[in-house]
Specification:
Layout: E1 4-5, E2 12-13, E3 26-27, E4 47-49, E5 51-58, E6 72-79, E7 86-98, E8 108-116, E9 119-120, E10 126-131, E11 135-143, E12 146-160, E13 163-171, E14 179-185, E15 192-199, E16 208-210, E17 217-223
Parallel strand pairs: 1-3
Antiparallel strand pairs: 1-2, 3-5, 4-17, 5-14, 6-13, 6-15, 7-12, 7-14, 7-17, 8-9, 8-10, 8-13, 11-12, 15-16
Length: about 230
């Protein structure tokens, strides 16, 4: 069951379930003026979903606010390079630490799964475990009473063929501390796919579909160059 925290009244509110019979643990949206921001699209096949300040969903193995103590999220995207594929090497995301605005220094885990029937495949195409941010910058915006963080992560390139994929990411702040939330975002009309997933295990045996929520993230890849065979004429 999703637990929603009211920032205004410090009360726990239970909201009705929509669609899946379960609810994702998230920060309750507050009445604040939206800030429109553009995320510059990279030169190759990328996902660009700017943050929208609407809400934040927890993706944390040590989530005090989550009913099970664990919640992980996954966002889907499309690689479209006319058959060349690309090397994923960077992820940028927006989020924060709720409810006391006290960041917890802890690594993140990233898994990229091929899509199978609208869900992640059993085995990842690649994964990066125990990754610390290359940079973690405060944007100056305050969301739900806490600071918005812009986090950049750089990886050893992961080659992805054209197709649809899921990015699962989470951290572990530990129980008794602030919980990390991943901010919601604006669907990328080019390489985005509407909706996201959430589960209550590190490796969810069953995913819950949130068809109305997209997450703020930029995934960057370098298109793999085509190798041309050379010929000589005698």
């Amino acid at each position: 069951m999703k637990i929603v925290i009211s920032v205004l009244f410090c009360a726990v509110i239970l909201l009705p379930v929509t669609g899946t019979g379960a609810e994702v643990a998230k920060v309750l949206p507050v009445d604040q003026a939206p800030v429109l921001r553009d995320v510059v699209r990279g030169p190759d096949g990328t996902l660009d979903q700017a943050p929208n300040q609407v809400n934040g969903l927890f993706s944390d193995l040590g989530c005090d606010i989550c009913t099970s103590g664990v919640q992980v999220l996954a966002e889907n995207f499309v690689v479209s390079t006319a058959g060349m594929g690309y090397d994923l090497d960077q992820v940028i995301l927006w989020g924060g630490y709720y409810p006391n605005d006290v960041p917890v220094v802890a690594p993140f885990d990233f898994y990229i799964y091929p899509d199978v029937g609208g869900l992640p495949a059993a085995a990842p195409a690649c994964h990066f475990v125990g990754i610390m941010p290359t940079s973690d910058t405060l944007t100056g915006l305050v969301l739900f009473g806490v600071s918005e963080h812009l986090m950049q992560f750089d990886f050893t390139p992961c080659n992805l063929a054209d197709g649809t994929y899921w990015l699962k990411l989470f951290t572990n702040t530990g129980l008794g501390t602030d919980d990390f939330f991943w901010e919601t975002g604006v669907l990328d009309p080019v390489n985005g796919v509407a909706g996201s997933l959430w589960g209550t295990e590190e490796y969810p045996a069953a995913w819950n579909i949130d068809s109305g929520t997209d997450l703020s993230v930029q995934i960057t890849g370098t298109t793999v160059p085509v190798e041309l065979q050379s010929f000589s004429i005698e």
